[in-house]
Design brief:
The chain is mainly α. 55% of the residues lie in helices and 0% in strands. It is elongated. It comes from Popillia japonica.
Length: 156
């Protein structure tokens, strides 16, 4: 493991070369011929680690967050009771983060409900719908590409 002086020298050279890792890679052996030459990515990596974490050493991640089974049960109970609830509402009510609600739902292969109001269909709408369907079928017979040019979505 390099000493703190070595790390400091690497960062000084990186700064001297205006943050250019390739130039830093060339300059470092000129000034410190007795040291092992770093590869060019080491210069920018050390600078990034120092900027983000306050240390030049590699930071170990805390690992995966443990699942709180009590929160999981509460989230599932809330969505079973009312499937139209939003993720934000459940998270606020339970005092947990939204991403935890999302992760819980994803683990259980659930999806939040996106309520979309639909206009009521009346009996008198039937002739107009039939006319529209016939138009689509007739036009599709005349022009095979007609229906392929329509962008079909399930959104209102």
């Amino acid at each position: 493991m390099p000493s703190l002086f070595t790390h400091a020298d690497i960062l000084c050279i990186y700064g001297f070369c205006n943050g250019n890792a390739r130039d830093s890679r060339r300059e470092y052996p000129r000034r410190f011929s007795n040291r092992r030459t770093s590869n060019k990515s080491e210069f920018s990596a050390k600078y990034r680690r120092l900027s983000e974490h306050g240390t030049v050493h590699t930071v170990q991640s805390a690992g995966r967050v443990e699942v709180n089974h009590e929160d999981t049960e509460q989230v599932l109970e809330r969505f079973e009771a009312d499937p139209t609830l939003s993720v934000r509402k459940v998270a606020n009510d339970l005092g947990i983060l939204q991403w935890k609600v999302w992760c819980t739902m994803r683990r259980m292969s659930l999806h939040p409900c996106h309520y979309t109001s639909v206009q009521h269909q009346c009996e008198q709408d039937l002739p107009q719908r039939l006319q529209f369907y016939r138009f689509l079928l007739d036009t599709d017979i005349e022009d095979e590409l007609f229906l392929k040019r329509i962008l079909w979505t399930d959104e209102s």
